[in-house]
Amino acid sequence: MEWIEKWIEPKNQIDDSRKRFSNSQLRRMMIPLFIEQLLLMVVGLADTMMVSHAGEATVSGVSLDTMIYTIFILVFSSLGAGGGVIVAQYIGRDDRENGNTAASQVFLVSFTISIVLMILLLLLGKTILHLLYPSVDPAVMQACETYLWIVTLSFPANAVYNAGTALYRSMGKTSVTMRVSMIMNLINIVGNAIGIFVLHAGAAGVAWPTTISWYAAACIMTYLCFSKENKVFIEWKKIISFNSEMVSRIMKVAVPNAVEGGLFQMAKVVLGSLIATFGTAQIAANGIGQTIWSLAAVVVSSMSPIFITVIGQCIGAGDREAAKYYLWKLLRMTTALTFVWNALVLLALPVLLPLYDISEETRHLLIIIVFIHNIFCGTIGAFFGPMSAGFRAAGDVKFAMYVSIFCTVIFRTSMSFLLCLGLQMGVIGIAIAMVMDWALKGMILVIRERSGKWLSHQLI
Is 427 within 8 Å of 278 (Cβ atoms)? Predict the structure, then answer.
């Protein structure tokens, strides 16, 4: 393993006294996050597999609905991440008082916004579904409506859970969030089995366990975040009192991050409405494919919070050279791990595919789009996700947002329509446009890093 540790070291070194995180510390943060993300993906796979036994109409309905639901989840994770950046910088500065204030205000803002969004979606959900998917099969639409109504009720829990996990990750305590995630996913998977195979409840049999598991996890995380043994913790008096200055700092990171994630998911919804016109086989292939894509991207997902913690603390301590050092060290580490993991997922396909009760046409399309995804995710994955997280941790949030608007909303969407409609490539065109988006975004971010402008911002 010594040669691996040498390979991940950047060319530009810093003094050992300025290295805030050793390799063993990075591993201790990374492994729990990897397990946590893997559990989420495995449960996602299990959800899809179980729903597939209720018919392709149900699989298609849940997959189309998840595209909408995920927009709101991204808002909550963005709020948590925004607070995590600010808290990490205060930890780097050894300012516990302001760190506590920031953590408490994240809980207040996240909960308030989640209540508003939950009410809006409960009132307008059906209308949105019919506007986005007017030509979808009635059975698919029924599954969409059922799933959306139930999971919308989980918004407050989801927001609070994301606030709590962001707080713990900013402190580097990823093993705690992993254990809570295990409990949450155990509740979810057992509930799914009961809902699908015992109660034969279809989409509702997956949606209710999801909602219940979010509330269980939110309660646990909130309790843990009150612990005064933490480097930072939440306080009731700071939760119920609005601090406009601190909220402004949090939203300075959270809003561009939410816009970036929201526009990304909205583009997927638009593309989902395009896919909905291709027939049930292509809809099902895309839905299952996205689940396997998420499994393949688990290293990318698990590394992004580490970029925020490490680089945020370096920036808070005023050591921008250390931030640059750790950015490239983490990029090298992510690239190596992502390559190996994506290769393993491809090797596991012969085991995964028989678990799905799908047609031969769906299976054929699924294999093609998974290969396209994994080849590119395994080689450039570090440069379109985690690198953006590193920029946000340093305060360069608007640039990351602008890049996403251009690459994802404009370039990726237009290329998808060109490949799908112009060249009649269907869901394969969706996959190709996706990896083209990644490549373009990665090149732009590397150019930005080389310019040094990502280090010229100040949040606290």
Answer: yes
- Asked if the structure places residue 12 within a domain, the reply is no
Question: Is residue 432 in some structural domain?
Answer: yes
User: Does 439 map to a domain?
Assistant: yes
Q: Encode pLDDT of 431-457 as tens digits.
A: 899 899 999 999 999 999 999 999 988
Q: How many domains does the chain have?
A: 1
Which tokens belong to 352?
């995964």
Q: In which domain, by residue range, is 184 found?
A: 22-455
Q: What does the alpha-carbon distance between residue 248 and residue 217 come to, in Å, rounded to a whole number?
A: 28
CB 203 within 8 A of CB 61: yes
Q: Is residue 93 part of a domain?
A: yes
> What are the tens digits of pLDDT across the range 229-241?
999 999 999 998 8
Alpha carbons 279 and 55: distance in angstroms, whole number: 14
Say if residues 62 and 148 touch (Cβ distance below 8 Å).
Answer: no
User: For residue 175, which of 161, 187, 162, 165 has the smallest C-alpha distance?
Assistant: 165
Structure confidence by residue, pLDDT tens digits, 46-86: 766 777 776 666 777 777 767 677 778 888 988 898 889 99
For the entire predicted model, the pTM comes to: 0.83
Tell me the residue type at 172: G
Sign (positive or negative) of CA dihedral 75, 77, 79, 85 = negative
